[in-house]
């Protein structure tokens, strides 16, 4: 299996996951404050939405990569 097929499969899997979940979230720590023995930190939850066009485009691009990789090899 050549690199183009692997990349094509990764694009398809990423596109399907993007369409299925619609986005992902993560927690990031900010504003660390140390006052003597007391430490304060704030955790912010960030959400990134994956647009539908990006998921569909990823699936199409992966399909094209697989199609052209199989014609070459």
Description:
There is one protein chain. The chain is built from two helices and two strands. A hairpin with a 2-residue loop joins β1 (23-35) and β2. The chain is elongated, with a radius of gyration of 20 Å. 55% of the residues lie in helices and 34% in strands. The protein has a two-stranded antiparallel ribbon. The protein has one domain. The chain is α+β, with helices and mostly antiparallel strands and 73 residues long. α1 (3-21) runs antiparallel to α2.
Essential attributes:
single chain, 73 residues, alpha+beta, two-stranded antiparallel sheet, 2 helices, 55% helix
Structural class: alpha+beta
| Radius of gyration computed on alpha carbons | 20 Å
pLDDT < 50 runs, ≥5 residues: none
How much of the sequence lies in strands comes to: 25-35%
Which term fits the overall shape?
elongated
Oligomer: single chain
> What is the number of E strands?
2
Strands in their spatial order, largest beta sheet: 1-2
For the biggest sheet, the summary is: 2 strands, antiparallel
Number of continuous helical runs: 2
Number of domains: 1
Sketch the topology as an H/E string, one letter per element: HEEH
Give the topology:
Layout: H1 3-21, E1 23-35, E2 38-49, H2 52-72
Helix pairs in contact: 1-2
Task: Provide a quick synopsis of the model.
The chain is of the alpha+beta class. The protein has helices at residues 3-21, 52-72, and strands spanning 23-35, 38-49. The protein is elongated, with a radius of gyration of 20 Å.
């Amino acid at each position: 299996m050549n690199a183009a097929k692997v990349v094509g499969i990764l694009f398809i899997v990423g596109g399907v996951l993007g369409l299925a979940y619609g986005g992902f979230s993560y927690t990031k720590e900010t504003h660390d404050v140390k006052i003597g023995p007391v430490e304060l930190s704030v955790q912010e939850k960030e959400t990134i939405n994956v647009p539908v066009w990006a998921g569909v485009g990823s699936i199409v691009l992966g399909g094209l990569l697989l199609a052209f990789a199989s014609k070459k090899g």
